[in-house]
């Protein structure tokens, strides 16, 4: 183990100037965090197989499948971290309650976090950081979401009246508060996907970005088709055999359309961007459907895994998050990963050419395409990202090789776990095949102009 | 007080009439309806049904020049210490951050009754009801907080021709009581349709801010890429009416709006302008100039596409009907 060196400012400046970004970013004493494996339940379109499944039931199922796969019954893990984007207030301790309902030791601590669609990846970043810092030796990162069992809130008017009435000390005061109720207050509020600050749905935001970058309908449909074909092939090849546990009678992602075609996708009517000058191009086929599901990933130190005879798929190398100014239209809502990735690559001394697999979350087909277009655009990369020139081109044959959210579906907080497990397995297989290290870049856009990105590398 | 003796923008001095408190808007509307009826009766103004019968006593004859009262109404001490709850209701409705700093739109609401009191005076030559809000210009020179004791004054000026009638500015100013420095000034431009000024000439510029838009055929204007969309429910006018006190019937319900020739209730112009101001966010700073020009009214319920974008030293904004490509309003917010 390397010894800790005092890091005086003078020596730090010298080392910054003298050494590469990669070595500077890895302070001495930090250990590796490795990905042991993952487990998820098949993802299901909203209102179908999982329509009566709660977030806790789904996450417990994903967790329990992971426990079974790696023999963790009774094990006290360092931490279980996860979350849900659409969450009932009663689920304030969703992940801890799931742990208590699992066969893990009840001495396993847990906490909930949330970063919109980046929740699952952010959980993996947290767990790997704790491992790398020596605070824990093992942990689970994951997430769950259900649109079918989403919380319905009461209107702001009813909520305020009920709160005032419950705070009232006398019957008269309570009646006075209740008398303020108006019929319109009784209308329930369903959770929306509208951005709170702009009132535009995520699809409308992406339609604006799509128009700005001139992404064609054909290119989006081709990417959607590839996603379905790749995911179908991965299922056929058995890739998901050790990544998925059946749930509620479902054994495969039920959004998958292996037999879809460009003709079928082209026949769909646009649903977003219909008021814009540019022809509307985003359809239900090249946008992610609302989905239910849950996922979990086991991370640990290599020593912890070895002591239990567990495999190690990959190293969770580093991560970078970003936020962009979308409120006044300066940047697209879902473009934050385009900002995060160059910073992540630079810190690790890497370029796009050093990446074997690009796992770019398909919130919409055009999200992937605008991100790739942005990295190829020299003006954008210099003006917006502060790079000396274009970041570069991505070989499309390396993108989402086993399909992504367009085909699998996207239960918001569960997507990160799905992608981390897939990426880890991909680099492990590639390294075993070639005898050379393999790397995957993970990129997930999220509401609020957020993005989380990470690098995993074969061990 | 003598240090800032009120005068119109062109320098004509104004007599000061001091009121003990800000008048209540409810009673002003009753008086406004009555005086609108009187003026309507004298001028056979269309579009004001159901308003109290005019007595026809003493209103100016149609051929005589219209003159504005040479009076500034003045309330020397307007307390704000008790306004926190009301301010927070306003801030929640307009999507402002909930703080104890009064946004420029809230000061407009605060001063609005005094400006309205000018318009319902017997010697104000135009009818309150049926007037069209064309534009607004506001300058906020620094933060005003809950607890500040304010002095408010209001008057009318700059009566001038408009293609469809006459327009007039209602000016309101806010200072901290006992302080000469202006902290807020608002100029609201209204159009009274069907009136004319005998002395109006071409070089007087019979223009209104909304005029260009009025002439542009629907659908020819090309909107920018939106940055947001407001979904305005049917109760938007009632909600802003409740918080602003401006319960003009055209904003309250489809039925009451129909009486004034609108197919449905319309959103308060100042509600839309204040939402745009809120959308600018912290970048506006503590002192800013905020302008708006109104075009087609926003029918309720309805969706308004908006673009609030950086421009020069500040921001510009525009709101439109996404389906029909009709501009509803546009304006600027510029830090001072």
- Name given to the CATH architecture of the largest domain in chain B: Roll
Question: Which segments of chain B are poorly predicted (pLDDT under 50) over 5 or more consecutive residues?
Answer: 42-62, 201-215
SS class of chain A: alpha+beta
Annotated CATH topology of the largest domain in chain B = Thiol Ester Dehydrase, Chain A
Order of helices and strands of chain A: HHEEHEHEHEHHHHHEEEHEHEHHHHEE
Structural domain count of chain B: 2
Radius of gyration of chain A: 23 Å
Q: Helix fraction of chain A?
A: 25-40%
Amino- and carboxy-terminal Cα gap of chain B: 25 Å
Q: Biggest sheet of chain B: strands, sense, closure?
A: 11 strands, mixed
DSSP strand (E) fraction of chain B? Answer: 25-35%
Oligomeric form? heterodimer
User: H/E element string of chain B?
Assistant: EHEHHEEEEHEHHHHEEEE
Beta-strand percentage range of chain A: 15-25%
Keywords (chain A): Acyltransferase, Transferase
Domain Thiolase N-terminal (chain A): 34-302
InterPro entries (chain A): 3-ketoacyl-CoA_Thiolase, Thiolase, Thiolase-like, Thiolase_C, Thiolase_N
Pfam family, one (chain A): Thiolase_C
Describe the protein in words:
The complex is a heterodimer of chains A (459) and B (336). In chain A, β3, α4 and β4 form a beta-alpha-beta unit. With 459 residues, chain A is of the alpha+beta class. The longest helix of chain A has 21 residues, at 217-237. Chain A has 16 helices and twelve strands. In chain A, the strands form two sheets. In chain A, strands 1, 2, 3, 4, 5, 8, 9, 10, 11 and 12 form a ten-stranded mixed β-sheet that branches. In chain A, strands 6-7 form a two-stranded antiparallel ribbon. Chain A starts with 8 loop residues before the first helix and ends with a strand. Chain A has a domain at 161-186. Chain A is globular. With 336 residues, chain B is an alpha+beta fold. Chain B has two domains: 1-199, Hotdog Thioesterase (Thiol Ester Dehydrase, Chain A); 209-336, Roll (Thiol Ester Dehydrase, Chain A). The longest helix of chain B is centred in the N-terminal third of the chain and has 19 residues, at 25-43. Chain B starts with 14 loop residues before the first strand and ends with a strand. Chain B contains eight helices and eleven strands. In chain B, α1 (25-43) crosses α3 (104-119) and α2 runs antiparallel to α5. In chain B, 24% of the residues lie in helices and 29% in strands. Mean pLDDT of chain B is 86; it is low at 42-62 and 201-215. In chain B, strands 1-2-4-5-6-3-8-11-10-9-7 form an eleven-stranded mixed β-sheet, with helices on one face. The chains are: A alpha+beta (459), B alpha+beta (336).
